[in-house]
Design a protein that fits this description.
The complex is a heterodimer. Chain A is mostly beta strands. Chain A has no helices and 11 strands. Chain A starts with a strand and ends with a strand. In chain A, about 35% of the residues are buried. Chain B is mainly beta. The chains are: A mainly beta, B mainly beta.
Chain lengths: ~110, ~120
Amino acid sequence: DIQVTQSPSSLSASVGDRVTITCRASQDISNYLAWFQQKPGKAPKSLIYAASTLHSGVPSKFSGSGSGTDFTLTISSLQPEDFATYYCQQYNTYPFTFGPGTKVDIK
Amino acid sequence: EVQLVESGGGLVQPGGSLRLSCAASGFTFSSLDMTWVRQAPGKGLEWVSSITGSSAYIYYADSVKGRFTVSRDNAKNSLYLQMSSLRAEDTAVYYCAGGTYEKIDYWGQGTLVTISS
């Protein structure tokens, strides 16, 4: 199975900060990577697929990049509604696997 | 309006069985792949199973293979997860999700399954 790791596991940031989260796959997954946002007690929300394509309605402050094994999610200017946990997921090969998550909280 | 509504969760003893349902509306159900994702209390997301629109292809996580069975009834716009030989580690909120191989477009609100004696 493909293992997916994320770093950092958590981070504290201020409103207006630029935030970058890294996701790494244990083998080449091309661009078959998605990013999700989840707030406490809520269902996940899809943000990005194909490593860099924003889902409809997702604001452009979110961006994704990478291919192969290394990927990043960037939030250009953190807003109060962005404090959440972010997960990446590879869908190159079944079983699909999620990263362990990165919790973004307020500094 | 697109809706995915899970039901069937509850408290079950270890070794027991449970059937989850997910009712879909607001989109062409038969055209989308459907997926179950779970989240144990305080833990991260875990992909459980996916089924293609025609049910031609079905996939499972190793942790549930042989114990869980996913199915769908396109005439009823419904997705199911039959769970048996349940273990404490199956305790989680189970989400149904719909989309394509490439992306998940829709999420349900989740249903809680608790395995405990």
